[in-house]
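subagent[fold] <- orchestrator: predict structure for attached chain, return tokens only, no commentary.
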Amino acid sequence: MSKPSFSDTAGRGLARFSIAARFLLVPIVAALCVAAGYNASKLDFAGDYRVFFGPNNPDLIAAKNAEDTFGKADNIAFVIIPKSGSVYTRRTLSAVHTLTNQGWTLPYVTRVESLTNFQNTIGRDDDLIVEDLVFDPTELTEARLNEIRAIAESEPLIDGFIVSRGGDATVVNVTVQFPSDVPNVNTIAQNQARALRDDLMADYPDLDVHIIGAASLAAAFEESGLKDTTTLIPALYAIVLIAVLIVLRSFSAMIAVLLVIALSTMVGVGFGGFTGIELTPISVSAPTIILTIAVADAIHIIASIRSKMRAGANKRDAIIDATALNFAPVSITSLTTVAGFLTLNFSDSPTFHDLGNMTAVGIAAAWALSLTFLPAVLAILPMKFKAKAMANDAAPTGVTAVVANAVIAQPWAFALATSALCVALAVFIPKIEINDQWTRYFDERVEFRQAIDASRPYFGSDIIEMVVDPGAPGAVAEPEFLTTVEAFTAWLRTRESDIAHVFSLTDIIKRLNKNLNGDDPTFYAIPDDRTLASQYLLVYELSLPYGLDLNNRVDIDRQSTRVTVTTQDITTNEIRALVADAKTWFAENGNGYALDVTGSNVLFAFAAQRNLEAVAQGAIYLLIAILVILALTFRSIPVGLVSLVPNILPILAAFGAWAILVGVVGFSIAAVGAVAVGLVVDDTVHFLSKYFRARRIDGKSAEEAIRYAFATAGQAIMLTTFILAAGFSVLVGSTFKLNADLGLLTAIAIVLALIIDFTLLPAMLLIAGRKRSARTSGELSPQGQPS
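subagent[fold] -> orchestrator:
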């Protein structure tokens, strides 16, 4: 037997101090945590989906450049679907006319566009008449309705964009410019838009009206995050506390766990408020994750206390022994889990930085509370576990006994079978597809998703802006430039499989050329004179009413314009291919002009790939950190290397299982590897620390050490696995798909980690141990203890 290790001595000293100062320690620590949690009141939901992207993201930079040039394109769009099947009726156009006027009552509106206020142009002698397509819908005759339909179906700016190609749906689009310093402005505007919709549908029950748009997307982010906060966290608290009460059968233990997880969560969330973090549906998961992980430390200590007390120890001695026994593994697992979440800072998305940093601080708080506050609280609370006759805390019982005996009897069989299972799952990883359609970030319970699904068959899926810059002020009127834009527009329109609609400045220029040449159809072409084109634009703009100018199509200096593309319901890969093809076409046919491609779907299309690449780099650093930590802990590089096996395999197997079950990964899955590695180390460390303690301090054989590890850590590992898996599974109930995917995949990895740590890990230890002399102080490592 060896002398007690540093961790054993430190754990005992800390426990004795906590117990002695319990009546002072408990209120002071609780007060400090509550004070830290007060900063959580400063947290607010981000009002812009652009917070998902880092400042150096090239797609975000392109989007901001476009916004600086043409204005921020946030919008609230009302999709009107008449049950009669036709937009071109007096009743439907009356509703459109009413909603167009009411759209100006929404906050921070800069523009309202619809079929009724479309600025129709007519050439009359040498004059250009610009007027609303529909003045008074109640006076429309059948002849005029047919005329309106003919105009709409021949106009690229209407057909397929403002009115569906079948004439069975239409859009009233409200452009808004929200200030950045108004909290929850998207939700406020969305609620007012809903009020307009509800009033309209009450007056026109024969219409279905849905609300979509970038501002509505931002509001959906806020609402989804708030809903998760108010539903998932209470559900998780209930699951955790009921599980603790059932398994440990101690009300005092449940109260102690509740205090630890609540105070840890306060500290983590308070840190977010203190540092000015804006909540998103991703970062709002931090309290749920902190709560889940904080339980693990407390459970291991309380489970050890129960084991000691059932073996006959008094409560005080049991608390001291349990704290000493778990000091090293709890510290190591907390350190590796904190490291895992900190690697989220490698992500391209600030929202993952926020999630990682808040969670890391909360986990660090849980570690400190579990080793100080928890022993003090347990010393105060009445807690009894009935001693069992002949109880032996070094012998596994129940399921752990069955598993331990089976692995000891057939280590090679378990090692090969578990390895084969992991490899069989991992081979499916290459089949995973990256597909990150932001329109499907919300499940069908969310109103915004319902609206998107309802409008998609009529108007396609997403908007992409192709910004074309000729490089000189006034150059957009150059015939050569306009001809290039027209050719580019025509090429885009040939891609009917992935593009639903395209319109550009050239559509307006060609219509004006026709109007000012007696509406002769042969003049529906690009004018061959720059001066003429400039005059057309000037005359047209002078005739436009407030809010319907061309500044959203051409910049003030007349140096750039944008081609607006509405895509079909296409995948992330298809969006990236479309962008690449557009840039290739322009490089070959664009006459040296510059092209930038932007849009919310473009931002998200490249986000998952960038996140995977960035977080993969972070995961490598994390594995190196874990190797160093475990090698130092067990004073052996070989032990550190071997311990990586049961930590990497669950992640690979989980992704393989995901490939079979789902087959698609997106934005949030990039974080799973780093998060899960930090979590699955928990089981490995607790098992190894108990095993080496038995081998080096108690002088047990390999078989006896395996049984001791199962006896002292087995039930706690099973319970924490259940709680961790249940906690992350609760995220599956999120209305936000990114959280649901993160929760499910992490839960799968945690369950697989339990299987591997209960079969492959002890089998490896036994095989290595049996190859060495029984006098050797430890398999795979020189003499020493966990520190």
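orchestrator: received. Logging for downstream: The two ends are 16 Å apart (CA to CA). Confidence is low (pLDDT under 50) at residues 773-787.
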